[in-house]
C-alpha cells in the first residue's frame, strides 16, 4: 500500500464470510484492504483507457498502415 497511515472505517461485511475467513486464519482487514486496492487500480486503469482511447486508436492505425517503427532492427 502507498501509505502507513490507517483510517478506521466501518465496513459491513457478510457475517458468514467473516466467520469463515477468521476460521481460516485470514486477516480480514488486510484482505479487505488488498481487495479495495485492486478495485482502485482496476478503475484507474479503466479510466486511463477511456481518456487515452483516441491516442491508442491512432497508434494502432499507424502500426496497421506503416508497421512497427524500427521493425527491421528487431532481433526477435
Can you walk through the features of this model?
The structure is a single chain. The protein is mostly helical. It has one domain. It has 3 helices and no strands. The chain starts with 14 loop residues before the first helix and ends in a 10-residue tail after the last helix. The mean pLDDT is 93.
Descriptive terms for the model:
mainly alpha; 3 helices; 76 residues; elongated
Brief overview:
The protein is mostly helical.
Order of helices and strands: HHH
Ranges with pLDDT <50 over ≥5 residues? none
Number of beta-strand segments: 0
- The helix/strand class is mainly alpha
Q: Could you outline the blueprint of secondary structure elements for this entry?
A:
Layout: H1 15-23, H2 28-51, H3 53-66
Amino acid at each position: 500500500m502507498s501509505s502507513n497511515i490507517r483510517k478506521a472505517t466501518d465496513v459491513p461485511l457478510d457475517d458468514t464470510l467473516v466467520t469463515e475467513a477468521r476460521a481460516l486464519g485470514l486477516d480480514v482487514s488486510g484482505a479487505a484492504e488488498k481487495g479495495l486496492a485492486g478495485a482502485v487500480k482496476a478503475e484507474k486503469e479503466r479510466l486511463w483507457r477511456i481518456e487515452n482511447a483516441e491516442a491508442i486508436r491512432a497508434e494502432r492505425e499507424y502500426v496497421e498502415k506503416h508497421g512497427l517503427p524500427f521493425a527491421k532492427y528487431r532481433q526477435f
